[in-house]
Amino acid sequence: MVLRIHFSPDDLALTTFAEAPDPFWETLLGLHALQAGHSRSALTTWRAEIAPEPTFRSLQALAPSRGYSPDFLTPSEAREGFDAGLDALLRTRAARRQVELARLSRGAPVPPALQRLVTHEATFRDMAAALTRFHRTAIQPLWSRIETDFHRHRTHCGRALLGRGFGELIGSLHPALCWCGSSLEVAGDHVNGDLELAGRGLRIIPSYFCDRRPTVLADPRLPPVLVYPLPARAEHDSSHPIDLGGVLGKTKMLILAATARGSTTTALSTAARISLSSASYHAASLRKAGLIVSERMGSSVRHSLTPLGEDVLRAGQEVH
Question: Cα–chain-centroid distance for residue 94?
């Protein structure tokens, strides 16, 4: 099945990438990962370390790993931080809760405790408190890494946008995404139909805990978002460090380190103490390996690291 997201010129002008990780999307998708596991080895370890709590099990019934989860669990106000999202969640009207819980019940019977979320404000506040505890217990300890990976990827997307354009960038974010004319196609058995942005634009949110496939809100009337898996950084066994200097050679490692500062070819030659032609040769080799990208700026060429290049440089530095 395919969901087609239709863009007008106004929608393209209003489409943005999230400026920071969304705490409520990470919390919801963390609940999914806790139930179904995750393809990323680091999160397999994370899952094993989460102490089971009765309140977490009730949240899992509200947010099953497969199928629908209520849209009110991911308020758009969370872009301003967890507290802003929590305030918005607590203001969710009973009528909306009823509609979204009815939709949840189509996949599986809703336990009586969840049905009380509609009519009992105290029960709804207890649910919000449990969600907050899960965020602080399970998500917050990883937040520094989430932010690091998020901003690294966002920087890479910015470079790609400038160098290749919006259509090619958005189609490269995930294999399930395809830019076709003026529409973005999202493939998957969990989506179908058409979403008209109608001048609202689209907020694009990379998510650390999102696994396997991009997703959207079920209600097309809500502010449109596209959430997709944040590419995982390279992982290696730190107990057996790799001497990347021996693999790439001292000169290429010097070039890689200089590139981290966004250097021109001339600056690379100075940093590595080699000729301009040699610096250009080494830069071309690193570019072909996917470790750096190069962009002409006037009469010079400026080089910068790709996410893979950053991982390689970081791993090399950890050895010394």
Answer: 31
Coil vs helix vs strand at 35: helix
Residues composing the chain: 320
Give me 73's structure tokens: 């669990």
- Of 213, 182, 193, 196, nearest in space to 2 by CA: 193
- What phi and psi values does residue 191 have, to the nearest 5 degrees? -135, 155
* Domain assignments of the chain as residue spans, ordered by start: 2-229, 244-319
* Spatial separation of the C-alpha atoms in residues 196 and 214, rounded to whole Å: 18
Residue-wise pLDDT for 282-309, tens only, equals 999 898 888 888 877 677 788 888 877 8
Backbone φ and ψ of 203, nearest 5°: -100, 120
Token pair, residue 306, equals: 């790709």
Asked if 269 contacts 282 with a C-beta cutoff of 8 angstroms, the reply is no
The pairs formed by 166-173 with CB atoms below 8 angstroms and a separation of 24 or more are 166/12, 166/15, 170/204, 173/204, 173/206, 173/214, 173/228
Helix, strand, coil shares, percent, the chain, to 5: 55, 15, 30
What's the confidence (pLDDT) of residue 242? 44
pLDDT in tens, 110-125: 888 888 999 999 999 9
* Buried/exposed 223-235: b ≥16 CB within 10 Å, e otherwise: ebbbbbbbebbee
As a whole number of angstroms, the distance between CA 308 and CA 253 comes to: 14
Say which amino acid occupies 16: T
Cα(164)–Cα(272) distance, rounded to whole angstroms? 30
> In the block, which residue shows the tokens 């819980």?
101
Task: Please name which of 153, 242, 260, 273 lies closest in space to residue 205, comparing C-alpha atoms.
Answer: 153
Q: Which residues contact 122 (CB under 8 A, 6 or more apart)?
A: none
- What's domain 244-319's architecture? Orthogonal Bundle (1.10)
* Residue entry with tokens 């990379």: 206
